[in-house]
Amino acid sequence: MTEEIIIAGFGGQGVLSMGKILAYSGIMQDMEVSWMPSYGPEMRGGTANVTVIISDERVSSPILNQFDSAIILNQQSMDKFESKVKPGGVLLYDGNGITRHPERKDIKIFRVDAAEEAARLSTTKTFNMIVLGGFLKIKDVVKMENVIKGIKKSLPERHHHLIKVNEDAIKRGMEIVYPVKN
Questions:
Q1: How far is it, in rounded angstroms, from Cα 75 to Cα 86?
Q2: Which candidate, 113, 128, 124, 178, places its Cα nearest to that of 9?
Q3: pLDDT in tens, 112-171
Q4: Which of 87, 102, 116, 144 has the fewest Cβ atoms within 10 Å of its own Cβ atom?
């Protein structure tokens, strides 16, 4: 099993953190992983993306031109990465700020309204974990117990009191993700 994932959005949306948690989760599961972030000098508000590869075989290169899965969090990223999902692959997106919805017929498209849900729950910082939950519902690439270990590994110890909040956000994302007819 090899899963090649691109997560893309604006800086400040937790794109890199989501990728790091997936990578740590893969490590906790004894998988081979690659985590390669890319972001502009603006950071918050600038574009950011991260490529994550989780595999039971050695990862030969972190550089990819096509992906099994794309997690898209803004219109710029939709424009750039929708075409780079392999036929038969998965595109998951948050509808907030998306003006041109994905149109491909050869991929599976899912939507999770994470920004709306995070605002409704008054936990806007859990936006990325709601998205991650949606992804994990669609693609069972890592086990939940390893995701929790990944969160614990990526959060500074002073924020470990937020692990339960993040776990709840992941579970909520799993509940609200839905397929888009294409």
A1: 19
A2: 128
A3: 999 999 998 888 789 999 999 999 999 999 999 999 998 988 888 898 888 999 999 999
A4: 87
R_g (Cα) of the chain, nearest Å:
15
Residues 105 and 129: their CA atoms lie apart, in Å, by 28
Residue with tokens 């950011």: 48
The confidence score (pLDDT) of residue 70 equals 97
pTM of the entire structure?
A: 0.92
Q: What six digits make up the tokens of 61?
A: 């290169």
CA atoms within 13 Å, Cβ hemisphere of 4 = 16
Domain ranges in the chain are 2-179
Fold for the domain defined by 2-179: Pyruvate-ferredoxin Oxidoreductase; domain 3 (3.40.920)
Q: Which of 174, 164, 166, 156 lies closest to 129 in space, CA to CA?
A: 166
